[in-house]
# Entry
Amino acid sequence: MGKKIIIISGDPNSINSELIYKCWKKISKSLKHQIILISNFQLLKKQFKKLNYPVSMIQVKNINDVGKTNKLKILNINLNFKKPFEVKDKSASEFIIKSLNTAHRLGLNENVKGIINCAISKKLLKKDRSGVTEYLALKCNVPRNSEVMLITNGVLGVAPITTHIDLRDVAKKIKKELIVHKIKSLHKCFKDLFKRNPKIGLLGLNPHNAEFRKDSEEMKFIIPSVKKLRKNGIKIKGPLISDITFVKDYNNYDVIVGMYHDQVLSPFKSIFKFDAINLTLGLKYLRVSPDHGTATNLIGKRKADPMSLIRCVEFINKFGK
# Structure
């Protein structure tokens, strides 16, 4: 009955059920037919009731045996939850790990267009790799540091060289080999997915690029990386100065690569708000997620913006194979 779009309901202590409902109300019937939600049927039912959201749901056992229906189709993760938004960390972690593992298995199925995971608190994941990007890369046997996090909205993309690590550890990680490896992976995956050669801007690490001191990361690692990447035919410019690039110069690039997470995500979100998705490049399947967190401060207030989740569904539908 057509290829499926898998959505993981994500962290139970979050705004995810609100976003799922709002997204479900806005998308077309044809998209509804494609969507399978990995969740806990009873928990989601309790959450929708608490939010006063009327949703027709149905449990499914096999994604290949689902006909056309406008009901929200739930592939059930069989755990017991007593309260809708007060799930203890141990139970929430078990739920998340089982959900991600199920989605990974389904993602390898040729009958799946791609996977969307709603927001997940990183404390619920295993500690060997700190985020969903890293967790699924490990499941896909992707070598460490080969996965690339790309935040994009079709106008601009941003990608960090280091992902979910503390700021104090960033400078220790910045090496020529890592920069070259990451950007080569980004270039290849971007070209394969979007069918064009991206223009890449690479930020420096330090304020004013450390005035290009000889002992700076810019001189030791970033400039040599740019030279090597250019020799490989990659359209890249840098190191760009971080505090002015997002004023207007970002319009000159398809992707701006930064040295650490918030260096590129903070200005990107300031400009584009929720109109973006988080895309992991280098996996064995297409995986995206909304570009925001669990927003526990908004639980039950019905004020959450579903735009990013809607964009995820549209993206998978357009680019999923």
Notes: The chain has two domains: 1-142+286-321, 145-282. Residues 12 and 85 are 6 Å apart (CA to CA). The chain has a mean pLDDT of 92. The chain is about 40% helix and 15% strand.
